[in-house]
């Protein structure tokens, strides 16, 4: 296998180093903006050099972001090259273009590192689907948010201090919005659900609530009730439709999710025969991510492409009801009408539909919203 590697940042360098000693694959080209000299690969600033080299059979996209990643990947597949990517944003937002094109051109496409980093989550979903129906996918998919929430819960740090530590460690970007507002988790959820259920969920209908406005008083309140807050994704397949959303969620301290430390991920599926299976590991980082990129290349050598066939475009309806913890500086009639009790400064709502709660949140910036655990045990006010 001769690889054209797009990008030589954290993941790209990891892929280069992991493939170096291998005899079954080699990085032939590296696309890199800065000046770089490599002993055994040609370096270029021009993607067309890679596209035009017929000896390159596989493109590894490690530049991230939507553009020009999408254009490069589409062009590579048009030219008959297989593609491995770790780019969840591109896979989620252009799923309806990328997978049909791969199928039409008969090229192989995989993105295992895009969800769960070093966890073989998507490739395991593919195996699960061979013999059973997946009813649920979701869990802790963002290491940065888990690091912040874990630091607030276990170390008693405030949000800003925890975020600054996450930035110092290289987990969070200078602008942390993609992580803390839940958008990264939404991308990962949509990619996972599309593969698990064999559909193409309407991405724009998947709401995401993040952790930007959580405070140390919220965390103290949760502790009083024996609960831990995590940012989680959830997608369910029902007989009559699909639900998918991202929101901070409370777990009893005895739950597996509550125990997930620092920047780890814990991703779960529920199969119709196997029941719950959870996958724990490093959701990011150079070598965990590069590991799954190289695994995808190995799968290409064995002729394995995407995890499922492209499925139909499918609406999302989030009408399941839950109780929420809502702390806002702007209470209104809707909130008063749904109040079942109070925890400190926050309202505990009666059961309301997920879609309704998220749509109210959209119009109340600065609010922190968090779902209570399923079931009412121990939640006196709900
Ligand atoms: N920002 C992401 C995270 C990186 O923190 O999980 C891995 O996708």
Detailed description of the structure:
It is a single chain. The chain is an alpha/beta fold and 382 residues long. It is 35% helix and 25% strand. It has 14 helices and 19 strands. The protein has helices at residues 10-19, 47-51, 69-78, 88-93, 95-105, 121-131, 143-154, 159-168, 177-180, 183-197, 216-224, 286-301, 333-337, 354-362, and strands at residues 2-6, 26-31, 42-44, 58-61, 82-85, 109-110, 134-140, 200-201, 227-238, 241-252, 264-271, 275-282, 313-314, 321-322, 324-327, 339-343, 346-349, 352-353, 368-371. The strands form 5 sheets. The protein has a 6-stranded parallel beta sheet with strand order 3-2-1-4-5-6, with helices on both faces. A 5-stranded antiparallel beta sheet has the order 10-9-7-11-12. A 4-stranded antiparallel beta sheet has the order 16-17-15-19. The chain is globular. Mean pLDDT is 96; it is low at 376-382. L-homoserine binds at residues 117, 142-144, 171, 179, 184, 283-284.
Present the secondary structure layout.
Layout: E1 2-6, H1 10-19, E2 26-31, E3 42-44, H2 47-51, E4 58-61, H3 69-78, E5 82-85, H4 88-93, H5 95-105, E6 109-110, H6 121-131, E7 134-140, H7 143-154, H8 159-168, H9 177-180, H10 183-197, E8 200-201, H11 216-224, E9 227-238, E10 241-252, E11 264-271, E12 275-282, H12 286-301, E13 313-314, E14 321-322, E15 324-327, H13 333-337, E16 339-343, E17 346-349, E18 352-353, H14 354-362, E19 368-371
Parallel strand pairs: 1-2, 1-4, 2-3, 4-5, 5-6, 8-13
Antiparallel strand pairs: 7-9, 7-11, 9-10, 11-12, 14-18, 15-17, 15-19, 16-17
Helix pairs in contact: 1-12, 3-5, 7-8
The protein binds L-homoserine.
Residues 117, 142-144, 171, 179, 184, 283-284 line the site of L-homoserine.
């Amino acid at each position: 296998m001769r690889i054209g590697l797009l990008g030589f940042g954290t993941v790209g360098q990891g892929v280069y180093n992991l493939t170096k000693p291998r005899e079954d694959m080699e990085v032939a080209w590296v696309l890199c903006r800065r000046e770089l000299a490599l002993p055994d690969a040609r370096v270029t600033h021009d993607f067309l050099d890679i596209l035009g080299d017929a000896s390159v059979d596989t493109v590894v996209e490690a530049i991230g972001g939507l553009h020009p990643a999408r254009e490069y990947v589409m062009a590579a597949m048009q030219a008959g090259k297989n593609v491995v990517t770790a780019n969840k944003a591109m896979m989620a937002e252009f799923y309806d273009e990328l997978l049909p094109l791969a199928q039409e051109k008969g090229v192989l496409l995989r993105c295992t590192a895009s969800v769960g980093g070093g966890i073989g989550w998507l490739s395991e979903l593919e195996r699960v689907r061979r013999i059973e129906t997946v009813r649920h996918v979701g869990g802790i998919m963002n290491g940065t948010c888990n690091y912040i929430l874990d630091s607030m819960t276990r170390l008693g740090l405030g949000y800003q201090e925890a975020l600054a530590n996450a930035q110092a460690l290289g987990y969070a970007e200078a602008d942390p919005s993609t992580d803390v507002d839940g958008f990264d988790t939404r991308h990962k959820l949509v990619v996972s659900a599309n593969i698990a259920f064999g559909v193409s969920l309407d991405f724009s209908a998947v709401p995401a609530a993040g952790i930007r406005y959580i405070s140390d008083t919220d965390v103290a309140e949760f502790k009083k009730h024996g609960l831990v807050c995590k940012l989680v994704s959830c997608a369910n397949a029902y007989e009559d439709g699909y639900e998918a959303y991202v929101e901070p969620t409370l777990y009893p301290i005895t739950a597996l999710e509550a125990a997930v430390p620092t920047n780890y991920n814990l991703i779960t599926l529920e199969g119709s025969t196997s029941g719950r299976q959870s996958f724990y590991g490093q959701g990011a980082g150079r070598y965990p991510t590069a590991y799954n990129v190289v695994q995808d290349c190995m799968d290409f050598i064995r002729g394995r492409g995407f995890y499922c066939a492209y499925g139909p475009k499918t609406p999302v309806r989030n009408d399941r009801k839950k109780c929420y913890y809502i702390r806002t500086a702007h209470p209104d009639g809707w909130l008063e009408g749904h109040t079942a009790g109070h925890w400190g400064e926050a309202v505990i709502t009666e059961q309301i539909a997920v879609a309704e709660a998220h749509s109210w949140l959209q119009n109340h910036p600065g609010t922190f919203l968090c779902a209570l655990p399923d079931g009412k045990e121990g939640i006196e006010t709900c």
